[in-house]
Amino acid sequence: MLDILNEVKDFEIITIYRHTGADADALGSQFGMKYFLESNCPDKKIYALGDDVGSAADMFPTRDQLDDISIAKSCAIILDTGNTERIDDQRYKMAKKVIKIDHHIEVDAYGDVSYVDTKAAAACEILALMFENSKKVVSTACARALYIGLLADSINFTTTSTTARTLQAAAYLVSCGLDVNKISQERMGMSENDFFYINEIRSSVTVDRHVAYAIMDASTYEKYGLDYNLAKEKVFAMANVKEFEIYCLFTEDKSYGEGYYNGSLRSKNVAINEIANDYGGGGHANACGVKKLTKEDISRLVNDLANLL
Amino acid sequence: MLDILNEVKDFEIITIYRHTGADADALGSQFGMKYFLESNCPDKKIYALGDDVGSAADMFPTRDQLDDISIAKSCAIILDTGNTERIDDQRYKMAKKVIKIDHHIEVDAYGDVSYVDTKAAAACEILALMFENSKKVVSTACARALYIGLLADSINFTTTSTTARTLQAAAYLVSCGLDVNKISQERMGMSENDFFYINEIRSSVTVDRHVAYAIMDASTYEKYGLDYNLAKEKVFAMANVKEFEIYCLFTEDKSYGEGYYNGSLRSKNVAINEIANDYGGGGHANACGVKKLTKEDISRLVNDLANLL
Asked: Which of A57, A271, B24, B155 has a beta carbon 3.0–4.6 Å from A53's, enabling a disulfide?
């Protein structure tokens, strides 16, 4: 296992990065690393960089600011990022040494030191086990950041990537003084507005064979104070229904003008990304997206999906 | 830690019990124990007894049948039950030896051997750690039963009773060959009917200060093929909303005649059981119930709850 304290020992400045469109595993591993180094290297200056924060941002501090000269002197640690293009703050290239720590399938083999474990459910799992192994101080703040990332990427310990090691990492983090109940309330709680908007989605569901879908107009989500980005995330409103093999949320995107919808498509078992490709979209086998659909396109798309089952 | 194989070694017949109104921890610990003994004592006859199965029943086998004479020869193991009155199948009293294993606060100190750990999040947690400690065979079926009970009583590892030990127990069970993704799909999946009924509840929600409540008539839940018992369980439809400090589901119970409702009351932080008591109900501080309320009673009750906040 990588000895991170040994790797950074010759540097006074450490810069920490993660991918663009940061999710909870990206931010959790970034701040988990920051807190671990702060506890164990009080003489070093440690910065969490990166502009682009997503919907998990409210559970983490804001990023640090740093000038180019300082970055050029630093050791860069890049977390949860498989390809160099997605590293948020490309100034990492200026750093004296680059360390990659990741759990994605390797797209770019970058870094002077690289530690990739594709069997880990989350980058936060790798760090939790690394820090436990180090026998050094792990503060509650560090454990909290890692636990949030672990929960997010393993979807509360339910994904196929969740292993005994994932739960061992979780057990270790809880032993560092976490209040799992408080973390859960922070993570799972939705606003009353979201509750009622999700209800609108569920009330709009149409079922065609085993495909469930909802078409949501901008006027509806705006009524609940939501913008397009927040509205389109709510595809989970149709998750966990036994009969819904495939479920899709079509959300109006007014940037294309009126009457155009972007679709978030989810499938439990069948691969649906080829159909997404047919409509100019893309993504993973069980989670993909299509942009700029008319209502007629949606009808055809839903029919094509239903024909897969 | 209790050496269960040593405790039962002199018996040819072992009978296993749990509490009435069996939940997933009761059934999980009962069948987990049964499978463990079957793997490790192939010469013994092992029976899971008890009539009263609840909504978790579809994830477990049906109970065994056994005559009084066999029970009288047996060693009885009683799981997850704090008081003797709730033991499902009172014939346990006929058994030659009684072993109690539980995580509830002790109401009745019963049993020739008693192993009570109130710090465990679930009876299944106690068994998982006991079986791990034994170094004996733990089959995947045994691990699955225990994991389901552990998830249920810890509400997916989110309750205040969830400790590092709970997650260590979970890690051990997963290492016995569990497919956590499959278990999650089995547990979390709701039927399309439930989806649309839950939606009716959510569409009926009224918010009074930070109390959310829904009043559901029998005609509505019957439209979705639900009976009273299945309908009243759906109080979770209002969970996890930041603004809802207290939430209540009032479900019509036609056994009292028309227009009478039973309430399931939930609170995040404030104790509400004294108010439940004022209306002739009872239960825990944050989860309690009241029976036979008119709509006028409900208005007064909601007002009393809102005044607590």
From this structure: A57
* B191 interfaces chain A, CB cutoff of 8 Å: yes
List the one residue out of A57, A8, A58 whose CA is nearest residue A36: A8
Partner-chain contact A268 B185, CB within 8 Å? yes
Instruction: Decide if A265 contacts A284 (C-beta within 8 A).
Output: no
Mean pLDDT split into 10-residue runs, chain A, 309 residues: 97 97 94 98 97 83 96 98 95 98 92 97 97 97 98 90 97 97 87 95 96 98 93 91 95 95 93 95 87 97 97
Spatial CA neighbour of A103 closest among A82, A134, A131, A130: A82
And the tokens for B24?
A: 């997933």
CA distance A7 to B237: 49
The token pair at B120 is 């465990």
Fold match between domain B4-188 and domain B192-308: no
Q: How far is CA A150 from CA A124, A183, A298, B237, B253, in A?
A: 6, 12, 35, 26, 43
Nearest to B190 among A180, A190, A241 (CB): A241
CA dihedral of residues A260, A265, A270, A271 (deg, nearest 10): 80
Class assignment of domain A4-188? alpha beta
Whether the CA torsion A121, A123, A125, A130 is positive or negative: it is positive
> How many angstroms away from the CA of A192 is the closest CA of chain B?
6
Q: Is A167 exposed, middle or buried (0-12, 13-18, 19+ CB in 10 A)?
A: buried
Strand order in B45-48's β-sheet?
A: B45-48, B13-17, B75-79, B97-102, B113-116
pLDDT tens track for B267-302: 988 999 999 999 999 878 888 999 999 999 999 999
Instruction: Give the closest-approach CA distance of A252 to chain B in angstroms.
Output: 23
Assess contact for A250 and A215: CB atoms under 8 A. Answer: yes
Phi and psi torsions of B207, nearest 5°: -115, 120
* Backbone conformation region of residue A257, classed left if phi is above 0, alpha if psi is from -120 to 50, else beta: left
Question: CB contacts < 8 Å between A and B, how many?
Answer: 109
> How many CA atoms lie within 13 Å of A105's alpha carbon, on the beta-carbon side?
1
Task: Pick the residue from chain B with its C-alpha nearest to A155.
Answer: B181
Structure token pair of residue B31: 């069948």
Its CATH class, for the domain covering A192-308, is alpha beta
Q: Domain residues of chain B, as ranges? A: 4-188, 192-308
Terminal-to-terminal C-alpha distance of chain B: 44
Q: What's the ipTM? A: 0.83
Chain B contact probe: residue of A193, A196, A241, A267 with most B CBs at under 10 A: A241
Amino acid at B259: G
